[in-house]
Amino acid sequence: MDIRPILFTLRRHKLTCCLLVLQIAFTCAIVCNTIFLISQRLSRMDMPSGVAEQELVYLQLANIGNRADAKARATEDVAALQSLAGVKSATLINELPFDYGSNNMDVRTDPAQRVATLNATQYFGEHVVRTLGVRIVEGRDLQPEEYMDLSEVFSLLAQKQYSKLPSATLITRAMAERLWPGQDPLGKQFYVGQGLPFTVVGVMADLIRPDQGRLNLGAQYSTVWPLRVTLDQNATFVIRCAPQDRERVLRAAVEKLKALDPDRIVLDKGTMEQHRHDFFQNDRAMAGILVGICIALLIVTALGIVGLASFWVAQRNHSIGVRRALGATRGNILHYFQTENFLLTTMGIALGMVLAYGINLFLIVHYELPRLPALYFPAGAILLWCLGQAAVLGPALRAAAVPPVVATRSV
User: Rounded to whole angstroms, how far apart are CA atoms 48 and 44?
Assistant: First the structure.
């Protein structure tokens, strides 16, 4: 189809065309970036945890008052949980995956470094790997003789007896690759605090770090330390069992621990799956809001196209009738309006791509978001082309249905 008559017609309606092109451009720019933001949120929600989520329950208790025998009570509590029917493993841990707070440290590969290589979280507790179901891909797990009480570690730090501190630790594969790219991490040392050295004895496949605010620092930068914790140190019980036994085991665990010490308060309990669901509730809500914004923008743009096309059909009733009388088919009229809309949409998309890139640069600078992948530009273009053709179809079909005789008599 010759587009010169279409361009000539559009030049006679410059203001209207410019407004529609701008509307399409802004829609294109916002939708491309919004869909990218939605994909980022969904990726966060779907990131691997590295733990056996379907097999885990947790239980957080608080003592009434301080207890002098916290260590003995912790040992007794864990042993009692281990004895429950269906329990594979149990432990006390300083923090859970998908918690809102965490213990963190700056890590250096050289004690003389001024700037840390990365920031990682620290998991404390006996049998953490076994209980959480974390998979070790290189090296070994921590050994019983390597463990030390957290309170004893604090005492040694206060006395500056650094040589007596435990030195073995586990790190994740992502952390190992960041510290020593392409090298075998086993036996290598990294440094924390005032240059304290720690030796890697095992590498875990994945272990997500807690704290929403630190996921962008490296979601899989986690370590496991040979430190025992107690209930007085804000530790949480974690129990691993078969998925179908979780509710029963959780009820039995509460009853068992209450029987051992009635003067304790249950602060929180549940399954790891529910803990994950709650952790990402803000991401889920934001993704829903962004989806709503996309749908609203597309509807408004579609209505704008429908309204303008309907107005032009009404205005061109006479010219449509003349063309029909001169031999134009319904298909010719339909294709005319579709081509006209395609040209306007393409202009809007071209301008929208530039705006989308500019908005993405703004988000990169001010909100540290990643660069918008090139794939989103053609995807956004195809979406708007399809939207434009669908929106103009109704008015175009009405124009194609105008009888030549009726159109010419209405002069």
Answer: 9
Question: Can you tell me the distance from the alpha carbon of 328 to that of 333, in angstroms, rounded to the nearest whole number?
Answer: 7
* Residue that has been written with the tokens 């009388």 in this structure: 325
What average pLDDT does range 49-76 have in this prediction? 88
Q: In the 8-state DSSP scheme, what is residue 347? A: H
Q: Please classify residue 119 by burial: count the beta carbons closer than 10 Å to its beta carbon, then call 0-12 exposed, 13-18 middle and 19+ buried.
A: middle
- The token pair that represents 171 in the structure block: 């790190």
pTM equals 0.83
CA dihedral sign of residues 225, 229, 234, 240? positive
Of 273, 281, 272, 276, the C-alpha closest to 60 is 272
pLDDT in tens, 130-188: 999 999 999 999 999 999 999 999 999 889 898 899 999 999 999 999 999 999 999 99
* Tally of CA atoms within 13 A in the half-sphere of 172 that contains its CB: 25
Contact 309, 17 (CB under 8 A): no
Structure tokens at 37: 């933001």
* Structure-token match 């770090």, residue found: 209
What CA–CA distance (Å, rounded) separates 14 from 20?
10
Residue 115 carries which DSSP code? S
